[in-house]
Amino acid sequence: MRGLFFCIFAPVMAHLRLAEIRDVLKQNWGYDTFRPLQEDIILSVLDGKDTLALLPTGGGKSICFQVPALAMQGLCLVISPLIALMKDQVAHLREKGVKSAAIYTGMTASEVEDALSNAMFDPEFRFLYVSPERLQTNTFQTAVKRMPVKMIAVDEAHCISQWGYDFRPPYLQIAAVRKLFPEAPVLALTATATPDVVKDIQFRLGFKQENVFQKSFKRDNLIYFVVKEDDKQGRMLRIMERYPGTGIVYVRNRRRTAETAEFLRKHGIAADFYHAGLDTRERDRRQNEWMTGKTRVIVATNAFGMGIDKPDVRFVVHIDLPDSLEAYFQEAGRGGRDGKPSVAILLYDEYDLRQLKRNFTLSFPPIEKVREVYHDLCQHYYIEMGTGQNRMFPFYIHEHAPRVGMDPVQYFNALKLLEQAGWLVLSEHLRDQSQIHFKMTDEQLRQFETQHPDMEDFVTLLLRSYGGVFTQYVHIDERIIARRADLSNEEVVEKLRMLHNHQVVSYQQESNIPLLIFALNRQDERYLYLNPEVYENRKQRARERVESVRQYVTSGDLCRSQSLLRYFGEMNSSPCGGCDVCLSRRKTREQSDMRELIRQEARKMIQENQKDRKHLFERLSLKYEEKMVEEVLRWMSDNGEI
Q1: What is the spatial distance between Cα 80 and Cα 624, in angstroms, rounded to a whole number?
Q2: pTM of the model
Q3: Nearest-angstrom CA–CA distance, 101 and 77
């Protein structure tokens, strides 16, 4: 009887659960149906199973954890390294009325305290986004034990694997956090992972059993081309003439973004550039103008693209070689998300191949040089032995590299090795958009306004313009406030600072300061441990990734799509039929068929006693291309057929 009950009950429950998650999707996103695999992934999580989801760029990864989290009671802890993406998703969730917050390196203690407090004590609080570095702090480790965590989502999950192309040591802390919540399922998400990395992700996250949902990485509408080209700028212009619509051009460094965008503008193409060195408002402006079509082409470093879902990108051009096929696949994959035909074109020359090798060499400075960099940083920032943990400092690499006689690229990679060993953390910026949080109670605020009547209208304007400012930090725009208050930007900033000084609000003004954070107390650099075995292992993996890029661009034997898919473990894909390799093969095959047709017709003419070679050439050239006829007749003569 019990078995019969289960047979009847299980399908009914599954149907109710399916109806529930579809209702969540409809209410919050307006969609009637899920994309392929999304439904299966969500149901796996709701069944309490640890789940790894491999979805291509633009495959709708956020819905895979947001829907089940909204369908269950409690808090979803989301771990992501992408600050801009975290803030964007939190903003969208709040617009839907879902209480959420993000914590990342560079926030003030007050901001962090508010977010942690809400996550611990507000039963309606649903999402807490944290950067992986945050997991290591005592404050977070103490607070998280008191949170009602029912699900853990790990974005960019490949970062947990030492064999991946973007390993980040703080991700290793996730295993310790999940032990606090043994019943909470983990959903790991990534767009790029080789078979080795897929296994390593599940091992590092302590999956109870292997459970992978993988959508094929194949993009039928995206055609890949590799072109060896000395005149890259000329070829780039011809690409844009041939393929109308919006596009992205990826380059290696910031200087080249500006130069390339200027070149395109001089040739009548609406272009702009984007890199992490621009301030936040400028990045947002340029991105928005590209998203809305005011700018046709954005020229960018790899800082551009994460979390950007513009569907109608018709071409993605790389004019510098990427360091890995994982990076290339992700960047190229930003084309054609609307399912319409698009191209990804990689231009290279011999210099690029030499530069690829040089960059690899610079990526692994000698361990003694890494220790020298660490010593120099400690001396420069006056960090004494046994102190310094969690201290952060403004950091500009071009001021530091010359002191130890290193190329900035090599110096940066020395920092990355120190970061991977857990000694330092690099952060792109201290803070993005300005934000405020009212600290006073209603009664205290009325007293303040009585004492400062000249501020009453300004305070009222703030309260009317921004909701939720008493419970959490809210992003503001001083320019909008200035227009509403009929003040200058400078006057608005002055008033906000005055309110901050009187502890009416906490005002965090926009800033874009690169940061260096000491993750651990200072050690004598002579005993600074950098595991040589791990160092050599990573170096070998990096060498293999570089070699994969070199083989991809120089080999013309395998369809470009097949080549990329095999790198990610899909061994049985079919040729795309449209890439440069497939087109070359088709042309060769067609020419071979044509030559055989000419040969058969020539043999027929010979059988009819038309054996004079000149006569054969004249007759056949009336019907076929002269050059091909000449080649066939020469071959026949060489082989005794004429």
Answers
A1: 62
A2: 0.73
A3: 10
- pLDDT of 422 reads 79
* Rg of the chain, C-alpha, whole Å: 30
- Quote the pLDDT of residue 5: 42
Neighbours of 630 (CB within 10 A): 13
Phi, psi torsion values for 182, nearest 5 degrees: -60, -25
pLDDT tens-place string over residues 570-611: 998 999 999 999 999 888 888 888 888 888 888 888 887 766
Whole-number Å distance between alpha carbons of 36 and 20? 18
501 neighbors 411 (Cβ within 8 angstroms): no
Q: What are the tokens at 147?
A: 């949170």
Tokens 């000395």, residue? 230
In sequence order, which residues have a C-beta less than 8 Å from that of residue 566 and are 6 or more positions away? Answer: 558, 573
Q: Is the pLDDT of residue 6 over 70?
A: no
How many of the other CB atoms lie within 10 Å of CB of 627?
A: 9
Question: CB-based burial of residue 186 (10 Å sphere; 0-12 exposed, 13-18 middle, 19+ buried)?
Answer: buried
Nearest to 436 by CA among 110, 95, 96: 110
451-460 CB contacts, 8 Å cutoff, 24+ apart: 452/502, 455/495, 455/498, 455/499, 457/485, 458/485, 458/495, 459/499, 459/504
Angle at the Cα of 405 (from 403 to 410), degrees rounded to 5? 110
Q: Which tens digits make up the pLDDT trace of 466-505?
A: 877 887 778 788 888 988 888 888 889 899 989 998 889 9
C-alpha span between 284 and 307 (Å, rounded): 13
Q: Kindly tell me the number of DSSP H helices and DSSP E strands found in the chain.
A: 25, 19
Strand 392-394 with 515-518, pairing: antiparallel
Q: Token digits for 152?
A: 């853990």
Q: Tens of pLDDT along 66-115?
A: 999 999 888 999 999 877 788 888 988 998 899 999 987 667 778 888 99
Distance in angstroms between the alpha carbons of the first and the last residue of the chain = 88
Query: Could you give the CA distance from residue 188 to residue 209 in angstroms, rounded to a whole number?
Result: 13
Cα separation, 452 vs 559, in Å, equals 72
